[in-house]
Amino acid sequence: MTGVPPIFILAPPRSFASIVCAILGQHPGLLGAPDLNLFFEQTMAEWSTGWRNDDTRAQLFPKVLREGLLRFVAQLYAGEQSVEAVEMATRWVRARSAKSTAEVYRELCAACAPRRLVDKSPGYVGRWVCLERMAEAFPDAGYIHLLRHPRSQGQSILDRPGGALMLMLGGSVDRSGPQPIADPQILWHDAQVRIMRFLDQIEPTRWLRIRGERLLGNPDRGMDAICRKFSLSRSRAAIEAMTHPERSPFAAFGPANAPLGDELDFLGRSAPEPNYAQPQSLDGPLAWRPDGAGFHPRVATLARRLGYA
Fold first, then answer.
1. What are the chain's domains?
2. What is the pLDDT of residues 4-56, one digit of tens each?
3. Is the pTM higher than 0.85?
4. Distance between CA atoms of 141 and 137, rounded to whole angstroms?
5. CA distances (Å), origin 11, targets 54, 127, 145, 175, 187
6. Coil, helix or strand for 169?
């Protein structure tokens, strides 16, 4: 029971992944999901409880990380995301506590068939083991490496509530000066390097690299390229459907027992940030650096390599 192999959007937080997943999810051959986060752990018992078998903590915020899967299961099997449907989804997850997360993921793919599941959980790209679990569970999966300019992505992280704390907890801290500075360019750089290293092991026929600004600025061309890559229908109706990400059943807050599962500012708005199209430079000081520093040379070099001038 495997269904059609999924498509994973590989991108760090605040890289347009929510809106792009919602766009893709409107294609009649695809089903875009909220943050499933399943590959954070090896087993459903670990995933559900937030604790591993050796009594070490698996996740800092297990309840929040579960809400995307609960909403997805509720929508998939009950056709709605009511309190009662989420309670059903909770029982569904509990009944699979003895399974691996890969087994449950394959079950979801089978339930989605003939549509192809699209998952964009940003936490996957922060840990190599998550990418390994992906590749092992789905040897034929497709991948989209979704990019965003490091300046706008970094500022977007810091503009969100708790953004600086997230960077600190994730180790994106510059300690080279007299005081540590939460610096999102570290997260951007390390995530891109990890994604590129992973995709070096994947056949080029199974992955596509896209700059988010280009896709959102010229959606018809971008959506056509994605459809070509993954052998999806390029009919006028299919492309038209993809222009309505607001129709995603996950582009709104969920019920009281699972309200989240995605970025807060995506829920209920389902549109990119209003300044996403503003030109960004790799030169000059960064607004979040109190010392007036700009991008580290390694970050600027990698960004240029990925198409940002």
1. 7-278 (3.40.50.300)
2. 899 999 999 999 999 999 999 999 999 999 999 999 999 999 898 866 666 55
3. yes
4. 9
5. 30, 12, 6, 25, 11
6. helix
